[in-house]
Amino acid sequence: MKRAILAAVLLSPAVLFAQGEKPFTIHGTVAQVQKQAKVYLKVKKGDDAMLDSAEVKDGKFIFKGTIKEPSMASLMMVITDPQPDFPRGMKQDILPLFLDKGDITITAQDSVKNAVVKGSAANDAYLQLDGMLKDIGTQKRDLQKAYRQLYMAKDEEGMKRLEPKFDELEAQEKKITRDYLAKYPASPIAMFALNQYAGYEINPTDVEPVFKKLDKKIRNSESGKAFATRLEAAKKTAIGQPALDFSQTDATGNAISLASFKGKYVLVDFWASWCGPCRAENPNVVRAYSKYKAKGFEILGVSLDDKKEKWLAAIQADNLAWTHVSDLKGWKNAAAELYSIRAIPQNLLIDPQGRIVAKNLRGEALETKLSEVMQPQ
C-alpha cells in the first residue's frame, strides 16, 4: 500500500513555504469560471506534503511561496457555487505539475486538468517524460481494469495469466525512465524519475549505477541526499546481509528483540490494521505459519499502527497467533525506519544464522520459499 501523508494546514500563500529558499508565483486563469470556486495547491515536501488554497475571483487565482528545489505538486479546483451548465466532474478537477522557481502561468478555460503551464522548466521536463510513458500508462490502466474484473469474478487462473504482462510493462517503463536519466542526467526532475524507477523497495545493484551517473548538483540536492540515505539503507538490508537488530514492546509492554529469534527461521512482517493489502495477505501468512511453525518457523509482526486498540483488534480478528510488537508511532516506527520501509505490506525472511534470505514473499511465494528450507509438518 503506497504511503500518502498530508500535513494539511491551510496557511496564507505568503507564509506557506516560509522556510524555503527560492520564490515562485503562480498566476492562474480559468476563463469560464466566474462564480465561486476554490483552488488547492498541494506540494510534495520530502515524504510529506503541504496544502494551500486560494479563491478564484473573476476567473483568476494566485499562489506565492518558496521551494528549495523543483517539487512535484498538484492543483485541484472545487466549484463552491455550482453552475448548472458546467461539465460533469467539474467539482474535482486535478492538474499534476512540477513547481519551479520564478513566475508560472496556468491558463485554462473551464478545467484546470486541461490547463497549459508555462514558466516551469521542471514541468516541461515532466511533460516530456510523461509523454514518453503515455502509451505504457494506457496499457497498464487497461490491464488493471481487466485484472479487477477477474478479481471480482474470483478467476484466479485468469489473474495469474495477466501477471507476466504487468511485469513486461513495468520492465518497459523502467527502461524508458532509465534511458531518460542517461540522456538528461541534470534534468530538474531527475530525482523524481529515479524514485519512480527505484520504487518502494530499492534494488541497490540496479539503482546505484543510475544514481551515480546523475549530475553532481542533482546528487547533492536535498532530494538527492535523501535518496542516498535510502540507498545506503537498502544496501544494508539486501538479501545476504545480516539482519539489523531492533527491539520493541509487545502488547503487554515486554521488550522483544529480533536477535531473540536467532536459531530459527523468522519472518519479520511489517503491516498495520488500517492497511487493506496487509489484511488481505494475512490469510496466506496464517496458512504458512500453521504449516511450518512446528518445524521452527516464527513470525515477528511489526505494526505501523498508532492506535493500540485497533492494532490488537486486527490481531484478534485475523487470528494472527504469533509475536507482535509496535512502538505505536505509525510511519515513524523505529524498526520500519531502520529497514527503510516506505510501503506496506513488506516482509523479510531471516535464516537461523541471522541473515536475510528473502524479501517480500507474498501469496504462494512464502510457502514456496519455506518449502525450500524447511519440511512441512
At the first level of CATH, the class of the largest domain is Alpha Beta
Which parts are unreliable, with pLDDT below 50 for 5 consecutive residues or more? 1-19, 84-90
Arithmetic mean pLDDT: 88
SS class: alpha/beta
* N-end to C-end Cα span: 33 Å
Biggest sheet strand line-up: 1-4-3-6-7
| Tally of alpha and pi helices | 10
CATH topology of the largest domain: Glutaredoxin
Cα radius of gyration in angstroms: 24 Å
Percent in strands: 25-35%
CATH architectural category of the largest domain: 3-Layer(aba) Sandwich
Helix content: 25-40%
CATH level-four homologous superfamily name of the largest domain: Glutaredoxin
Name the quaternary structure. Answer: single chain
Set out the fold topology:
Layout: E1 7-11, E2 22-30, E3 37-45, E4 48-56, E5 60-67, E6 71-79, E7 93-99, E8 102-108, E9 116-118, H1 121-152, H2 156-183, H3 190-198, H4 204-212, H5 216-219, H6 222-236, E10 247-249, E11 255-257, E12 265-271, H7 276-292, E13 297-303, H8 308-317, E14 323-325, H9 334-338, E15 346-350, E16 356-359, H10 364-373
Parallel strand pairs: 1-4, 2-8, 12-13, 13-14
Antiparallel strand pairs: 2-5, 3-4, 3-6, 6-7, 8-9, 10-11, 12-15, 15-16
Helix pairs in contact: 1-2, 2-3, 4-6, 7-10
